[in-house]
Every structure is written in structure tokens, then in C-alpha cells.
Design brief:
This protein is an alpha+beta fold and about 350 residues long. The chain has ten helices and eleven strands. It has helices at about 25-30, 40-45, 50-55, 60-70, 75-80, 90-95, 145, 175-185, 275-290, 300-349; strands at about 105, 115-125, 130-140, 150-155, 160-165, 185-195, 200, 210-215, 220-230, 235-250, 255-270. The longest helix has about 50 residues, at about 300-349. It starts with about 25 loop residues before the first helix and ends with a helix. A hairpin with a 2-residue loop joins β2 and β3 (about 130-140). α4 packs across α6 (about 90-95).
Length: about 350
């Protein structure tokens, strides 16, 4: 038997007298109840009744939620773009939270409506507190951009950003526990905005999918990202995987503080090849248009599947190369033997 729909009743006893929430003054609901909710809870409240829906869709509520969730969006250019979305900050929130639906993308390689501009709104959090925010605009219509490997760098290689992260906060703090500490406490939001289409998508996995120390520099590379399955018309395959890799590189600073030295985005296929600007725009367009987003916790599992399949493909190509090399060697040896035999035969006559 189907359960009854959610009720907006406050209670049946106590001092409430069985009244409903609609008997409360709207100002009380907005000021003392709805403002205490985060985005997902506010969206759930809107489903309870038409009365709560009308109160839960107020623009100021969603504006405050977006600003508190992503400090980077509190920037004039981003605010200007969000104001053009169908429902303003509410539309932007539902586009950007939580993360993309990893369903298979069907790409149109002949699309003539690629984005001419992208805006990245990026926030790094340590123990849920924002420690770095930046907005970067990028023109994407030039032939140089479309044909070059896609890459977004938020920091100049000569500069770094300070952070409140202190090396040695974990106990015991050997290298393994420190890397695990960063994996569990560092998170990332990377929202890509298409101002023309009035669309946005968060390409981060939020939690790290890989944390490693670079063997040469000693810097810690914390990797986030989204792995997508795409229909690759170039190979006639529908089982290709593409990774949007987001990397935060941290290094030690003065006084034991960690510095953020690199924040970057790249697109990579299963052969380890960086995608071009045009290919990356098609991927981003497909993700933005893939429908409703959903919360997911399998980012790391999907990344590990991508790494395993990439390794398997590399090993397969290496075996193929070894076979071809062996065939070439055998051909050369047989040819040499044939020429020696023929020369010997001629010398006998």
C-alpha cells in the first residue's frame, strides 16, 4: 500500500495544538527555518507543500546558499552571468550541485555551436572550510585554442598561494598518514560556466581520487576529477572513457605551512593523450546537457577503473608492438639468409 504524501503538519500535541506550518507567519518561516537549511534540504522542503514551495524559491535564499557553498561565485562577473540563468541562483545551484551524472555521453563531432567562452569558479576546502577561491575567464573560439591540448592553469608557475594547512597535524604523521590526511580533508569544487548557454557543471569529484608525492620535486599532488564514458566516433566505439583531471599541487612553505602551487584542469583519453580544445568543449557541452545531476560516491572507483583500463590498453599496444617487432626481425633475418643463399648459389656457377 502506497504511503501517504509528506505532511506539512507541525505536530499533534505539545503546545502546537495540531496546527500546520501554514499557520506560521511567512517571515518566521523564512528568517528562522529556511535560512538554516542547505541547498538539498531547501529543495526537499519545497516538495512538502505548495506553501513551502513558494517560500523556498525566493531568490535571496538561493543567492545566500550559493555564496556560502562556493565563495568564488561572489564575484561581479559570475553574479552577472548567474542573473541570466532561467531561475537565477536556484538554476545555478541545481546545475552545479552536487556533481555530473556519469551516464554515457553521445557527442556530435560536427557540432557548430561550441562555447565561445568558459568561466571557471574554483574553491578549495580544508576540513570543509574554504582556503582558496578563484575565478578565471577563458576565450575558446580561436583556432589556436581549438587545436591545442586543453589545459586550464589557475596559478602562474612562479607564484603560489598560502594556506592554513600545517604539515604534521595528523598523529602519527609519517608520509603515508599525511597523504591519507590530505585525501580525507582536502576537497575541491570546480564549476565550469557557459555564459552563452546559461549552463554550468561541477567537474570535480569533490573528494580526492588519488594523492601522491612527486618523486622528483617532493610536492604532493592531490587529484580530483570526473571520468565519463563517451561515444567516440573517431574509433567507431561507444566504450571509450575520458577523464577530466583536476590537480592541486601542494608544497612545503615557511613555518611548516603548505602552499598551493598549482591548480589545473586537463582532459585525457584512455591512451594518455591530452584532448584538444575542440574535443574538450564537446565533452563539457555533453556533460552540461546530460540531464539531471545526482549525488554519487563512486568517483574514486570510476577513476581506478579508468586507470586500469588505460593500463590494459597500453599493455595490449605494447604486446602488439613486440609482435610487429618480432615479425620485422624474422623478415630481416629470412631476407638476409635468402640473399646469402642466393649469392652462394651464383658463386658456384
Amino acid at each position: 500500500m502506497a504511503s501517504s504524501p509528506p505532511s506539512s503538519s507541525i505536530g499533534n500535541g505539545g503546545g502546537y495544538g495540531g496546527g500546520t506550518i501554514s499557520t506560521l507567519h511567512p517571515d518566521i518561516i523564512q528568517a528562522h527555518i529556511l535560512t538554516r537549511l542547505d541547498g538539498p534540504d531547501l529543495a526537499s522542503a519545497a516538495c512538502v507543500s505548495s506553501h513551502l514551495r513558494s517560500l523556498s524559491t525566493k531568490p535571496n535564499l538561493w543567492s545566500d546558499i550559493c555564496h556560502s557553498t562556493w565563495p568564488s561565485v561572489n564575484q561581479p562577473r559570475v553574479e552577472e552571468v548567474i542573473s541570466t540563468f532561467p531561475s537565477g541562483h536556484r538554476s545555478f545551484f541545481f546545475d552545479s550541485f552536487p556533481f555530473p551524472n556519469p551516464q554515457r555521453l553521445k557527442l556530435n563531432v560536427n557540432s557548430l555551436t561550441l562555447a565561445t567562452e568558459l568561466i571557471s569558479a574554483v574553491d578549495i576546502y580544508y576540513q570543509e572550510n574554504p582556503i582558496f577561491s578563484k575565478v578565471q575567464e577563458m576565450a575558446t573560439s580561436s583556432s589556436w585554442f581549438l587545436s591545442s591540448p586543453f589545459r586550464v592553469d589557475l596559478l602562474d608557475p612562479k607564484h603560489s598561494a598560502s594556506s592554513p594547512i600545517q604539515h604534521g597535524l595528523c598523529i602519527p604523521c609519517n608520509d603515508d598518514t599525511w597523504l591519507k590526511h590530505l585525501e580525507e580533508n582536502l576537497s575541491l569544487s570546480w564549476i565550469v560556466i557557459d555564459p552563452t548557454r546559461k549552463k554550468a557543471v561541477n567537474m570535480s569529484s569533490k573528494r580526492a581520487v588519488s594523492v601522491q608525492r612527486h618523486w622528483m620535486t617532493g610536492n604532493v599532488q592531490v587529484r580530483f576529477g570526473t571520468v565519463m564514458e563517451v561515444g567516440d566516433e573517431r574509433r567507431g566505439s561507444s566504450g571509450e572513457m575520458v577523464e577530466c583531471g583536476l590537480v592541486i599541487t601542494c608544497g612545503g612553505g615557511e613555518g611548516g605551512e603548505m602552499e598551493v602551487r598549482e591548480v589545473s584542469m586537463v582532459m585525457e583519453d584512455m591512451e594518455g593523450k591530452g584532448l584538444s580544445g575542440k574535443e574538450s568543449l564537446m565533452i563539457l557541452k555533453g556533460v552540461m546537457e546530460s540531464g539531471r545531476r545526482k549525488k554519487r560516491n563512486g568517483g574514486k572507483n570510476k577513476y581506478e577503473e579508468f586507470v586500469n583500463r588505460k593500463r590494459e590498453r597500453k599493455e595490449k599496444e605494447e604486446r602488439k608492438d613486440r609482435v610487429l617487432e618480432l615479425v620485422w626481425v624474422i623478415t630481416v633475418v629470412v631476407g638476409y639468409c635468402f640473399r646469402a643463399f642466393w649469392s652462394l648459389t651464383l658463386s658456384m656457377f
